[in-house]
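The authors assume throughout that readers already know how a fold can be written as discrete tokens. In essence, backbone conformation is discretised, so a fold becomes a row of integers matching the chain in length. A single example would do more here than another paragraph of explanation. For illustration, here is how one protein appears when written out as sequence plus structure tokens:

…
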Amino acid sequence: MRSVNHVASRTRRKKMMKNAKGYFGRRKNVWTVSKNAIEKGWTYAYRDRKAKKREFRALWIQRINAGAREHGLSYSQFMGKLTAAGIEINRKALADLAMNEPKAFKAIVDKVK
């Protein structure tokens, strides 16, 4: 008879099954189905943590572009002049100003023009 460490294997499965909480159907209570669903979810989570950064940068660029065009500049012209003027402000902050503080954003545009 072979020796099987049920304590360890059960603990390992329970730990994994805890991550399947809230899943629908057999994904929440059948070991093999659960394991596959959890691993796939982790794969997506890893991938999308990277994608999220790209998506937000794209959103900030769109917002800055919209703000700059209101003052007669394109995004690339605005960013070029910003660099030339030696103003170091990141896209996240610029996008926030363009959306929520139009006067402050206009002041920056006027400074670089």
